[in-house]
Structure formats: structure tokens, C-alpha cells
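In this section we walk through a basic example: taking a raw amino acid sequence and producing a predicted 3D structure, encoded as C-alpha cells. The instruction is simple. Fold the sequence below.
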Amino acid sequence: KSKSINQNNNEITKLTALKNQLESWIFLDTPLDDYKELRSSKVLLGAIPSTELSSLRLSVENTFKTAYLEAIGDNGKDANIMVIAHNSQANEIEAAMKISGFVKSPLRSKKAPKEELFDLSASINKHIEQNNIIEEEIIEYLKRLYELQGVYEYYSLYLERLQATDKFLRSNSMVAMQGYYPAEAKEELESLMKETLEDRYYLECEE
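The resulting C-alpha cell sequence is shown next.
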């Protein structure tokens, strides 16, 4: 059970990390994999420091007339951008972008980011629900275990009592009993027996 929970937790961590990366592309309404299908052009997807966005936009527009740059999202620290360039200029543009701190995105998806995010959330929730079910099963198992322990203790005490009767010898007029008691309690035991049985008892002690 614990192994299954660990596997689910690892999967949740992986999917959550992917979800966090993909959330910044939520305004892109086309699957990321679709951009690989272009023949005469190359699409560059990635992030640059937000402070470099304006200067990079001017550089691309002024230096590469046929290129197109669009900001997809900006969290205040990094800006996600998409640049479409003709194959003949793609390498040169990418080199210029790297000077501005451009980091290419490794993300891939066969669906639009919004749809992909929905699927990721569903998968995460599925693993969470599986963990909840397993945890409930463990709790139920522990309850049963505690109940069995209680039953075991009850019958153990009962068995001890039955075994204790083996130390008694009975007849119609006599009961003989063998056992142990603390040495310092000898006088207290004798006093109790005398008070209860008067002179109708015989006590033999060995150390």
C-alpha cells in the first residue's frame, strides 16, 4: 500500500511540475507539436527576461523583416515568446535571441495548452483520489487489527485463567492450591487466611 502511495505521489509531483510549466502558455491556442510541421519556416518557443522583451522585439522587427514575434505570457520576471522565422534566417535569429537571454522551451503537447492543462489536472486528481482510497483502506485495516488485538488479549487472559485452575486440587471437603507470592507478604497472607478460614487451613511455604 505504501509503495502505491509513493508511486502516486511521485506521479503527482511530476505532473504538477509539468502543469506549472505549461500554465504560462495557456494563451497559446495551438498544440505545441503543430509548429514542427511548418516546412519553410521555423517556430521558436521559449522565454526571455521580461526586461529584454521590448529591445528584442525592436531588434527582430528592424533586423529580420520577415520574422514575427509574439509575447504569449509574462509573469513579471520572464516573458514567454513565440518567434516565427524563415528557415534561411532561423539560426541567425535564434543566436540573436540567446544574447537577450532566450531559453528554448522543451515542452511538447499534441493538444492546445489549455486542453493539456485540463487533462493534467484530471490525472493529478485521479492519483489523489487513489491515495485517498488507499489511506481509507489502511485506516480500516488498522481498526480491524486493533479489534483483533483486543480479542486476542481477551482470550489470552481467559486461557491464563484456565491454566491457573490446573494448580488447584479439589475434593468434596478440601481445596489444595499451589502458587507463588512475595516473601515480604508472608505475614499478610497468613493473617488473611486466618481471618477468613480461622483454623481450617494448612499453609506450607518454601523459599
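Looking at the output, two observations stand out. The chain has a mean pLDDT of 79. DSSP finds five helices and six strands in the chain. In the next section we compare this with other chains.
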